Amino acid sequence: MTKFHADLAACPVPRYTSYPTAADFTPAVGADAQRQALVAVAPDTPASLYLHVPYCRDICWYCGCNTGAIGREQRLGTYRDALLAEIASVGAMMRGRVGAVHFGGGSPNVLPASDLYAIADALRTAFRIADDAEWAMEIDPRTIGAAQADTLAAIGIGRVSIGAQTFAPQVQRAINRVQPFGMVADAVHALHASGIGKINLDLMYGLPHQSCGDIVSSIAAALTLAPSRVAMFGYAHLPAMLARQRMIDGAALPDAEERFLQSELAHRLFTAAGYRAIGFDHFALADDSLARAEATGRLFRNFQGFTDDPARTVIGLGASAISQFDGVIVQNEKHVGRYRDSVCGRRLAGVRGVTRDADDRLRGAIIERILCDGHADVAALCRDAAADPARLSPAMATLESLEARAIVDRRGWALHVRSDSRPYRRLVAAAFDTRRPTMPALQSVAI
Ligand code: SF4
Fold first, then answer.
1. Is residue 335 part of a domain?
2. How far apart are CA 242 and CA 252, in angstroms?
3. What is the pLDDT of residue 71?
4. Residue 219 clears pLDDT 70, i.e. is over it
5. Position in ligand 1 atom list of the atom nearest CA 64
6. At what angle do helices 256-272 and 212-224 cross, to 10 degrees?
7. Cβ neighbour number for residue 273 with a 10 Å cutoff
8. Does 345 fall in a domain?
9. Residue 75 is part of a domain; what is its CATH number?
């Protein structure tokens, strides 16, 4: 049983889906850096594609994604055209070998079948995509039926992430996402019938009016769907930054200790059901590739969270999509109109980002190992980076207080987060972050 530390659980800390994090992006790094990085990708460099669709049928009030309600249907067509233009431009510059394609959003399945076929064809034409590449998509289960499931299978989607979040009706109402369990089950059955057997379910704790009893019943329902992976995210209430979250009654949110108990409960229920704990908020069945990666020290972290995708180069396509290269991270324009103007004018859409020097890469590697494995051999990582470990002495020293609380052990240059302290991994990783943002209202809490 993990011990509850009220001050640590409520501590604002980045999720570290990259290092440096998005909080360090500035307009000084944009399209020029993006172009230089794209053309510098050597042939056969492993790369992944991430394609963002910033539209949904309805907007959930908890959502932190860059998305908006579709409104007029013709917006989808103009957005598809912009994507096709960007795919052609970027594909002409980037020579890497693509091993994974991920559609995220928003809800990519708001696109009609003809658009999905056009986009998939354009990706295959513009990029060198491996025959065995995994194609994955985040979907809204409220709109998927047999015909759309067939379309997804036909364009090559083999894995689907379904936003379920909770099955408790009063919680669903409080977050403006009403989807009875039967609706999600029908979506899963339709996907299975179409041959898409790899199902990820996203669930959440810390939602308004959510109790531990709701966690138990939602997980029991989720398990009947036998997902191969589950992500159990803590709701990050950041109304100062996300206007739509102001619709959520802050007084109805569980307090820090209740959030902690919900997170612990989820961990207990999924591991008892045979799922392997992955990182600090994912679970996977033993035969899933994520579980195999975790078991063999081949787990990674990128903008989609924990992944078995080893590619260090990620090409982001679409409004707000982020591209990651060894030396730079660049985010596309978030505003759809301005994004469209750029890419339809044959210009790259990168508008903000951050360069990564050798020190950033070393710290990023240490942070990644702590989050993924719960331990890091700092001396070995320094050796790989031809760096003097002495520069990390201050970071190692700051772990003393967490060691005193029996959260982490230090042995020389090696550190190990105790197995019963898994939820505190982000805090341990933060010791190596020299750029940590100082705006608590803009960061999620540790648990
Ligand atoms: S469907 Fe998903 S992306 Fe769209 S608003 Fe809801 S949580 Fe956000």
1. no
2. 18
3. 87
4. yes
5. 8
6. 30
7. 15
8. no
9. 3.20.20.70
Range of the domain at 411: 1-20+357-447
Six-digit token string for 125? 């034409």
Spatial separation of the C-alpha atoms in residues 141 and 150, rounded to whole Å: 14
Closest ligand 1 atom to residue 59 Cα is 5
* DSSP SS3 for 44: coil
Please report where in the chains the tokens 């009875």 appear, as a residue: 180
- Verify that 16 and 28 share a domain, yes or no: no
Would the CB of 206 count as within 6 Å of ligand 1? no
Confidence tier at 445 by pLDDT (50, 70, 90)? confident
Residue 82 token pair: 């912009």
348: in domain: no
**Does the C-beta of 214 come closer than 6 Å to ligand 1?**
no
Mean per-residue pLDDT for 273-277? 98
Which phi and psi angles does 67 have, rounded to 5°? -155, 160
| pLDDT at residue 446, rounded to an integer | 82
Summarize the confidence of residues 304-326 as an average pLDDT: 97
* Model pLDDT for residues 113-150, shown as the tens digit of each residue: 999 999 999 999 999 999 999 999 999 999 999 999 99
pLDDT, mean over the chain: 96
The residue whose CA has the least distance to atom 3 of ligand 1 is: 106
381-438 per-position pLDDT tens digit: 999 999 999 999 999 999 999 999 999 999 999 999 999 999 999 999 999 999 876 5
Judge contact between 317 and 330, C-beta under 8 A: no
Q: Pairing mode, if any, of strands 282-285 and 275-278?
A: antiparallel
CA 318 / ligand 1 centre spacing (Å): 16
pLDDT in tens, 355-373: 999 999 999 999 999 999 9
Query: Do 291 and 365 belong to one domain?
Result: no
The minimum-distance atom of ligand 1 relative to the CA of 62 is: 7
Which pLDDT score, from 0 to 100, does residue 437 have? 61
For residue 238, what is the DSSP state? -
% of the chain surpassing 70 pLDDT: 98
Q: Which residue, 322, 344, 367, sits at the end of a domain?
A: 322
For residue 43 the two structure tokens come to 């042939």
Matching residue, tokens 């078991």:
295
Domains: count for the chain: 2
Mutate to test the pocket of ligand 1, among 52, 60, 62 (most ligand atoms within 8 A of CB): 60
3-class DSSP state for residue 121?
helix
Alpha-carbon distance 212 to 206, whole Å? Answer: 10
Look at residue 91 and tell me whether its pLDDT is greater than 80. Answer: yes
Q: Is 104 in the pocket of ligand 1 (CB under 6 A)?
A: no
Residues 101 and 201 in one domain: yes
Contact 366, 376 (CB under 8 A): yes
